[in-house]
Write a structure and sequence with these properties.
Length: 273
């Protein structure tokens, strides 16, 4: 591989992410929800692919991430894993599968790992979910944490505004990050928090910190692939950089196809048997 593609084609592991933090190498993470997209994302050199519960929004059209089910997440994760050779594949545990009973959480985690072949799981929350995290880790399953704006708790927050601006919430986030790292999480996502706070947390723990709307001091960054490719025009937060306008490219391509079919231009003599 050359250019923007990585030279190291070895499978990314949780240990390699730790090494990347120690050596100051940034971690690139994107979402994927299906085989075709995962092949492209993996081939472009992304280090971590998140099978996010954001599939509830991007793939199913739901307003929040809450409606997506365990079976649906398993379907998406299994599809992604089939398309990946290098990236570490992390699957979100959906709402309701780990918040109530730690034993249930461990059973659900084992099921996801068995039925998808993914490499790790991601859970939202701090000290309140530590019992579930511990049991999942005890089962030999790597866990990525997620703090700050946690979309599964949107009904509690009541807004998608920046989190932890006030000192009380910032202090809890700091202590939650330390607790998740100490219990054994291999990385933590920080979503939509002040950049200064994210920089503090990144320095305070040994595990990689992946930011989304959390500033440039984090050890890596994650975006939703549909957003950064410009497929989703209805979402334009401050932290999003669009690297393409696939909405326009795809609309033009499909529109040209419709025109050619209706005019009789497609298929032509060379496009038939």
């Amino acid at each position: 591989m050359a250019g923007y593609l990585v030279d190291d084609t070895r499978k990314v592991t949780t240990h390699r992410l730790y090494e990347m933090k120690q050596s100051g190498k940034k971690i690139a993470m994107l979402t994927s929800y299906d085989y075709s997209m995962a092949r492209i994302v993996d081939g472009a050199g992304v280090d971590v692919i998140l099978v996010g519960d954001s599939a509830s929004n991007t793939m199913a059209g739901n307003v929040t991430t809450l409606p997506i089910t365990l079976d649906q997440m398993i379907y998406h994760a299994r599809s992604v894993v089939r398309g990946v050779t290098r990236a570490l594949v992390v699957c979100d545990m959906p709402f309701g599968t780990y918040q109530i009973d730690p034993q249930d959480a461990a059973r659900n985690a084992v099921r996801i790992m068995q039925e998808t072949g993914c490499d790790a799981l991601k859970l939202e929350g701090g000290v309140e979910i530590l019992p579930a995290v511990k049991l999942i880790l005890d089962a030999g399953i790597p866990v990525m944490g997620h703090l700050g704006l946690t979309p599964q708790s949107i009904n509690k927050f009541g807004t998608y505004a920046v989190r932890a601006r006030e000192e009380a919430e910032a202090a809890k986030l700091r202590s939650d990050a330390v607790a998740l790292a100490e219990v054994g999480c291999f990385a933590i996502v920080l979503e939509k928090i002040p950049a200064v706070l994210a920089a503090e947390v990144t320095k305070s723990v040994d595990v990689p910190i992946i930011g989304i709307g959390a500033g440039g001091a984090c050890d890596g960054q994650v975006l939703v692939v549909h957003d950064m490719l410009g497929m989703n025009k209805g979402f334009s937060p401050k932290f999003l950089r669009r690297y393409a306008d696939l909405n326009e490219v795809m609309t033009d391509a499909i529109g040209n196809y419709v025109t050619d079919v209706k005019s009789g231009d497609f298929p032509n003599a060379d496009e038939q048997y």
